[in-house]
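Hello forum,

I keep getting stuck at the same step: I have a sequence, I want structure tokens, and every attempt I make locally crashes halfway through. Rather than fight my setup again tonight, could one of you with a working pipeline run this one for me? It's a single chain of 464 residues.
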Amino acid sequence: MTDQTSSQASRLIAVSNRTAAGQESRAGGLAVALWDTLADTRGLWIGWSGRILDFPSSRAKRSEEDGVEFALTDYSRDQYDGFYLGYANSVLWPVMHNRIDLAVFDSAFYRYYVEINEKFADIVQQQATPSDIVWVHDYHFLLLGDMLREDGWTGKCGFFLHIPFPAPEVFRAIPQHRKLARGLFAYDVVGLQCGKDLANLAQYLEEEFGAEELPDGRFRVEDRIVHLLHCPIGIDSRSFAEAATAEPATLAAARLSRFLGDRDLVIGVDRMDYSKGLPQRFEGMAKLFDRYPDLHGRISFTQIAPPSRSVVEEYAQLREQLDALSGRINGDYGDLDWMPIRYLARGYDREEIAGLYRRAKACLVTPLQDGMNLVAKEFVAAQDPEDPGVLILSQFAGAAEQMKEAIIINPYDSSAIAEAVKQAIEMSREERCMRWQSLYENIMSQDIHWWRTRFLTAFDEVPA
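Reply #2:
Ran it on my machine without issues. Output:
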């Protein structure tokens, strides 16, 4: 491995719903984190092909790209609807983000969730040897570890949860919560984004299964020992900082500047998801313009929010709500030569986004609940050290544990959002530089490579 962990001799097998197959998929955080290790160990990445077929094969299709092998499987329409749109994103996603009210507890969804987890467990069993390390990613595969153990897998196996783990009483709202938890403690190492998530899972295991806490983050649960690891994910900080001054970034910032003129830019970049707090953010900006008329025409808020899972009803409703809010705010506060809110429901390239971050005076990262939120880290990486912008961060983002020099706010409080934006716009350069320097040092020292090494090194304590 390029990071010289002591598990160098072991081949890594990564499992995730989406993979980095295809050159265009390699810019994301997970691809950056895993690629070198997979290439160095002649590893294998198992995942969904992205194809929905009437009669998908039960076998995975093998391919190879630049030293990394892939085993990709197709879904049927029923599997995609029941597993992905159903159980993963209409049960697990809302509950893990404290939105039980949006969960759809349909027993048919769970049957497809089991079916896909079994399908992936079979692929792992077909491809893996006992000396391999299996690293499973995210809420799509909570059952996979237990299925592997039931099938006789004795090798090292770890899991990383990219989203929050909620309080025990919230997790218990899921009818199959005990089965999901058994899947979790079948792994040797379970990585979690922040201390709160780790504490929630530990409390749940103690209350529900009588788990016994051992030294060094390990827990004895029934007949297994699992290591719960606090392992906040980072970004490829150096690469993103370089992208912010590259030509595509400079061109994107210039395009936006033609619209802005000399106004200060406040920016938000999020997937269109109800966990991101977008309506509350819009209301906060409305309160700012209502409370401080002297800011009219001086600042402009641009929200980039590409749609996600648009076929799910809650996401369609959110899109309608944002359309209405932005129209109302622009109608109430705009002028002939000034639009208070620019709301762009489309995606932009990584390099273009980096340029927009660098142009911004402030960035609003105000999710109602988030496992980490890498936008916060990307914004910091993209800044001009001589004249950095200010990060405004929700107290409910996992990143808030590491990024205390941001302006930390309650995203439900529209007044707090308004006051934070005003504070950021009026903050002295000296204070902005001081805050940014601390944030920058953190994202550089605990970057995506640090995260990978921290997780994989935890396997060194797992008995062979």
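DSSP finds 16 helices and 16 strands in the chain. If your local run keeps crashing, start a new thread with the error log.
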